[in-house]
């Protein structure tokens, strides 16, 4: 059996396993966030001129936890490590999964062979939105090579081989959109308070995120290999500012999706009424929306979401990359989509078509003009066949 075929089969099995989680998770109440200080113990992480990554990660994690507990005492905060010890990546994810956590935030400090590389960045799980993002994931994943029985634990995954990263192209998390929203909010907060260069939100194949079953992000505070960045992230004041930025992102996410509702964030999104608008190049005589047709048929309508924006974009905006897109408005955010169909298989093909321009494109679903859980929509589609 070829390596590629083997990885594809593994991906299918993992997708089937993760599809079973949303229903079980939807039954719990309360809110739990797991904070993961990267590295630890004999694994120091990246090294700067005067600091170690593991120490910076722990300091910012503790500050973040204190801010959450002070402002939201009802939120349960769990650490993957509270001491200077090494925790395997698979164990870090298991801690979050076993706690049935609502969010997973992994905190790291970046490094590069180029001393000029600088700035803060936030990652979600994905195939890799750039060569730099893929390199960052490979660097963080290499820690598994020092773990016992890593080949068995990680199903033969080799963090140094680009072939192993095929699985991240095949698996699309059901929490993808919430992870992206959290990442945007956290990145905005870090840039605002940390005063570091904004490297934006990217995606890459981080193993620690791949193993979690809730919205998850990985934060790179700044480059420990850059003298200016290290001066910030290694200082108490810099760490406080960065923790405040991450907290502000968490707070916005928590208040937007959970506060006062007592349910999982995705369930609040699921019943949300949305405004869906076509964005034709020359809007003369708009055709009847297929979403209206979906209301009449009582079947889920699938679309490919390609990007989000805080404001409405012109149809000539460079961010749309020449794609004729539609958008819907949710909680003041414009979310742009490509294609729509009641046939899930057709939309899968659409996502593949558009992935060369929008690597992080993912599928969303609607029922009766309202967003619904995509996994539930897929189940309805399959049962109707």
Question: Major beta sheet, specifics?
Answer: 6 strands, mixed
Whole-number average pLDDT?
77
Total domain modules:
2
Number of strands: 12
What's the SSE pattern? HHEHEHEEHHHHEHEHHHEHEEEHEEH
Structural commentary:
- 41% of the residues lie in helices and 20% in strands.
- It is an alpha/beta fold and 385 residues long.
- The protein folds into 2 domains: 3-257, 3-Layer(aba) Sandwich (Aminopeptidase); 271-383, no CATH class.
- The protein has a 6-stranded mixed beta sheet with strand order 2-1-3-6-4-5, with helices on both faces.
- A hairpin with a 2-residue loop joins strand 11 (362-367) and strand 12.
- The longest helix is centred in the middle third of the chain and has 22 residues, at 236-257.
Name some characteristics of this structure:
Aminopeptidase; alpha/beta; 6-stranded antiparallel β-sheet; 385 residues; 6-stranded mixed β-sheet; 15 helices; 41% helix
